[in-house]
Structure formats: structure tokens, C-alpha cells
Design a protein that fits this description.
Layout (H helix, E strand, L loop, with lengths): L2 H13 L2 H8 L3 H15 L4 E4 L2 E4 L1 H25 L6 E8 H18 L3 E8 L1 H10 L4 E5 L7 E10 L1 E5 L10 E3 H5 L3 E3 L7 H10 L7 E3 L3 H9 L5 E3 L5 H5 L3 E7 L4 E9 L6 H20 L5 E3 L3
Parallel strand pairs: 3-4, 3-5, 8-12, 9-10
Antiparallel strand pairs: 1-2, 5-13, 6-13, 6-14, 7-11, 7-12
Helix pairs in contact: 1-2, 1-4, 5-11
GO molecular function: DNA binding; DNA-binding transcription factor activity
Protein name: LysR family transcriptional regulator
InterPro entries: LysR_HTH_N, LysR_subst-bd, WH-like_DNA-bd_sf, WH_DNA-bd_sf
Length: 310
């Protein structure tokens, strides 16, 4: 298996056509077809379905595509680490959970452009479970995750402790005359939450078990945008940090209520792979992320977040 075969395969999938990929790669189409055939023979699996309309990945092809992308990215990172060893430059990919990106993404992008103009910072917004897998495979260099006790495969740096609150529509009948609710009261409502492996859900489940409580009726939605729409439709409430729903709270569409007995929070951490070395550029972005998170906490512009010492 050769790197060029990986590049050819990724280009074919990205462009959806052998002919278009051949044009972009400046490779004759028969040569491209031959390299693809050799790759499939070596793997013992068909990677693409071919038709007059183009090509689409088989199930095996989808799995291989993810690995091929990760390998090509690590090769590019290795090249960048050697050729740009003096001054941080190159491309860095960072993964952010949906519920964090609203607070951290824009300040981090702004700071990166100002302090490291030679670094191309690519931010990807994903579910936390997906980000962990992408970090393991090397498809992202860094990821912001939550300390749920399952982060041992990663090198971690704590960024902040983020309070979780009971979030509901502004006119919801739940505890309308209360400024706080107990965790048990919150859990007894119809809650709209991510799936078990994502976002705030593991933390809520752990806190419930520790308090000897049981979560009642749950509607699972793995999208912040759809989750907010469900709250506005009156389907239920949620337990989230304030940041992702701050616009709705400021416009009077939703409200947040503190949870006590016990209070609930999550630890936000910056993660990197223990097995894949970071480039100078990635190390620079990691340090910058810590700085930006600290500045946001001190300024109070990351709602509900408290700075953690490293």
C-alpha cells in the first residue's frame, strides 16, 4: 500500500468521480483506475460502487476513507513539524463539542489569527463521542472534551469547571416561581438530552447514580439546534450549560434555573493523543486555547464557567 494510493482514493471519494479526481490529481484516468484496483486487491474488499453517475463508497470504503484521511493528515503533520520547526505554521484541526463552540470558537479563532497568522486553524463541531474517536485516529490534533473518567487514552489539560442548569421555555410551568430546583425535581421532568455517550449525558447519569436518583422520561436528541427547537415546542426541558442557549435566554425565550441538592457541573478539558506527537503549530494552539479559556473565565464572558488551575 502506497501513500499515493491513499491520496488517489480520498480524492475519488471527495470528488465523487474518477474523471474529476484524475483532473484534480493530474493523473491519467486509466492509471488512477489501476491504482484503485490494486488497492482493492490488496485489501481484499471493494471500496467503491461505480456507475454512470459516478462513484460512492461501499461500507468497507467508508471505513477505509476515515483511516486514509487520518494517515494522510499525520504525514502532512510530520512534514510540517520538520520543515517549520522554528516558527509555528501549518494546519491544526481542533474538535469542539456543540455545547462549547458558542463560548470558545470565535474567541479562539480571533486569537489564533492575531497571534499565529501562519497557522491555519480548522475547527470542527461534533458530538463528544465522535470527537474522542477522531482524536484517537489522528483525524483531529486536539479536542475539547469533558472529564467523565474515560479520558485515560489522552493527554489532558483542565480548562474550566462549567455549571449545568435546568433550562426550559420561558413560560414553562415547571417551577415557574422558583430560582432553584433540586436535582431530583429536575430529573423528574421530561428531559431532552443527548444520547448516553455524548455531551452532558454521562455527567448527569453519574450525578444521578451518586445521589441515588433515577432519570425519568428522556427524549434523546443529539443536536443542540434541534434540542432547542424541541424545548421551544414545549416538549420538555433540559440540563445544559448556559452558553449554548444564552441568545434564547437574553431574548426572553428560555430561562435557566440553578440546580442544587446537589449542584451539578462538568470539567472541561483540552485533550491530545498520547501516541501521536503534536506539531509546533498544534502545541502553540494548545497553549493559546488555555490562555483564551482563562481570559473568558476571568472576564465572565463564558457564562457559568470557573477557571481551573493547571
Amino acid at each position: 500500500m502506497e501513500l499515493r494510493q491513499l491520496r488517489y482514493f480520498v480524492a475519488i471519494v471527495d470528488h465523487g468521480s474518477l474523471s474529476r479526481a484524475a483532473l484534480v490529481l493530474h493523473v491519467a484516468q486509466p492509471a488512477l483506475t489501476q491504482q484503485l484496483r490494486q488497492l482493492e486487491e490488496e485489501l481484499g474488499a471493494q471500496l467503491l460502487h461505480r456507475s454512470a453517475q459516478g462513484v460512492v463508497s461501499t461500507d468497507a470504503g467508508k471505513v477505509f476513507y476515515d483511516h486514509a484521511q487520518a494517515i494522510l493528515k499525520q504525514v502532512a503533520d510530520a512534514r510540517s513539524a520538520v520543515t517549520h520547526s522554528a516558527r509555528p505554521s501549518g494546519s491544526v484541526t481542533m474538535g469542539l463539542p456543540h455545547s462549547i463552540s458558542g463560548a470558545l470558537a470565535l474567541p479562539l479563532l480571533t486569537a489564533a489569527r492575531e497571534q499565529y497568522p501562519d497557522i491555519t486553524l480548522q475547527l470542527t463541531e461534533e458530538l463528544t463521542g465522535n470527537l474522542a474517536e477522531q482524536l484517537k485516529s489522528g483525524r483531529v490534533n486536539l479536542a475539547v472534551l469533558f472529564d467523565d473518567g474515560q479520558l485515560t487514552p489522552f493527554a489532558t489539560t483542565p480548562l474550566a469547571e462549567e455549571e449545568l442548569r435546568f433550562i426550559c421555555r420561558h413560560d414553562a410551568i415547571w417551577f415557574s416561581d422558583r430560582n432553584t430546583v433540586s436535582l431530583q425535581q429536575a430529573l423528574n421532568t421530561t428531559l431532552i438530552l443527548p444520547g448516553l455517550q455524548h455531551g452532558v449525558r454521562p455527567r448527569i447519569e453519574a450525578m444521578a447514580r451518586a445521589a441515588g436518583l433515577v432519570i425519568g422520561n428522556v427524549i434523546e436528541i443529539n443536536s443542540i439546534a434541534i434540542l432547542k427547537s424541541a424545548i421551544m415546542a414545549g416538549m420538555g426541558a433540559t440540563i445544559l450549560p448556559v452558553a449554548p442557549v444564552l441568545p434564547e435566554i437574553e431574548h426572553g425565550q428560555m430561562r435557566s434555573v440553578r440546580i442544587n441538592s446537589p449542584a451539578i457541573s462538568r470539567t472541561v478539558v483540552l485533550c491530545a493523543s498520547r501516541n501521536i506527537p503534536l506539531t509546533n503549530a498544534a502545541n502553540a494552539i494548545a497553549a493559546l486555547t488555555q490562555q483564551v479559556a482563562a481570559d473568558l473565565c476571568r472576564a465572565g464572558t463564558w457564562p457559568g464557567a470557573r477557571l481551573l488551575s493547571t
